[in-house]
Amino acid sequence: MSNLRTVHCQKMERGRLIQYLVAFALSLSTATLGTLSAWPTPVMPKFHNNETSVQITKDEIATVLAMAPPGFVAGSLLTRFMADSLGRRATVLASALPIVCGTIIAAFARVAWLLCIMKFLWGFGTGMVSTVVGIYLAEIADKDIRATLTVGTRFMFNFGSLLVICIGTFLSYETLNYCLLLMPGIFFVACLFIPESPYYYLKEGRVENARKSLQKFKNKEIIDQELELMKRHVSKEMRNSSTAREFFTGRQYRRPIVIAFGLKLTQVLTGGMTIQQYMGRITQEIDLDVQLSTLLIIFGAFKFFVGVMSSTLVDRVGRRPLLIYSYTGTGICLAVAGTYFFLQEYLHVDHSILKSFGKAAFVAIILSNGISTLGYNSVIGIISAEIFPLNIKSVAMTSLNVFGGCLGFSVAKSYQAIKNVSGFCGVFWIFSGVALSGAVFSYFTVPETSGKSLQEIQDILQIGTVSSDEENNLNDANDVEIVEKCRELKELRKDSN
Q1: Alpha helices by DSSP H, 196-291
Q2: Tens of pLDDT along 228-242?
Q3: Among residues 276, 198, 266, which one has the least CA distance to residue 438?
Q4: How far is 160 from 30, CA to CA, in rounded Å?
Q5: pTM of this structure
Q6: Is residue 89 classed as helix, strand or coil in its secondary structure?
Q7: Which residue of 80, 333, 443, 444 is most buried, as measured by CB atoms within 10 A?
Q8: 350 phi, psi to nearest 5 deg
Q9: Which of 115-129, 227-241, 337-351, 390-404 shows the lowest per-residue confidence on average (mean pLDDT)?
């Protein structure tokens, strides 16, 4: 009996191990995205202090940073077709190309318009990775570790950000850009060995390929039952139209659309990415008696370690509580930072008096970024990948990324203009108001999806199919029978153990 139990555990552990290894390979791509997103944090002070050979003004800097969201939109649109026609794995591999091209331009650019092309290409690759990674992990991961694996990719994103913030403050502008060339090559090689999603194969009608792929992720003793459940799930969902028109007009998709787009709206308009990009300049404005490099490392390190905590909390606490509490905490912290700048910019409090409160403002800013990393920035991507059915998932994720890209462009481009009119206090108070409204929205609209299968989530959201009631009843009865068989096998294994 002990030998049977050992063999069974080895089979189970092998499937889980493959899932973790695949998630790690994918996380290398998100680590690359982290390095690209944090690039402006150490670079903006270098531009301000004329430490580079690039000729660029403040308005041109805002334009360069605003080019990433349009690239993100374009990459997401391309992924909409690539993920369904070529597969999830091929899309991940193809995303390395625009990132490499953009990094080469960064290494040799000396004028602002070339940096605009660089940021567009980086955004293009980011859009591809962000769209396909969430879909892939939602399809291959067991439901009890799905959130952990997804948050793990976010953890590596924060690691990439920390890496650039730490070394970027000490390296020259040119050396930093050369170092970034290593990242896309590393994740490309790692992702060469990941298998394709079994859901993609079933969607294409390639059942045997789906079986082989599933054998790498699941316990072989119940492969047939697992495959049959997947086939029924895919068949039921693929009866519905998968066009963009059906997505926006279908009544069954209205609730997940409201949830996903509402969360994306509040996530982007809280300005977390903009604050990170301008963190160097914001810290210089606070004027603490600490070196800028030290403050930026503190900022990056705190965000990274909070990201580690999020991977353990997301399944234990649940998606919905994390959304509500993180939005609330972020809103309060941003309001505190805005109050500091109000005292500085409008009431003109004496610098010697106000300087003692500068540390509180800095702590509030890094807390806001850390809380958002711990909460909604980690959870929103998981929820968006979970709530849409398979037939419409690529359209949904692409549309969501396009929406987020347009919002990101608006925030990045308008940041400098709003700051010129209202100062830092206006910027932070606007971000604070959006964050608090995100907490209210999450409380009233977002369901809890933790620990639920994709089919159970569709049932909660009441997403129906176009098949007849009789056919649905028959499929449901067959599904129950298959689930019972899987349950009986598990009980037999427990008894034998």
Answers
A1: 198-203, 207-217, 223-238, 244-249, 254-269, 272-277, 279-286
A2: 777 776 776 666 556
A3: 266
A4: 8
A5: 0.71
A6: helix
A7: 333
A8: -55, 135
A9: 227-241
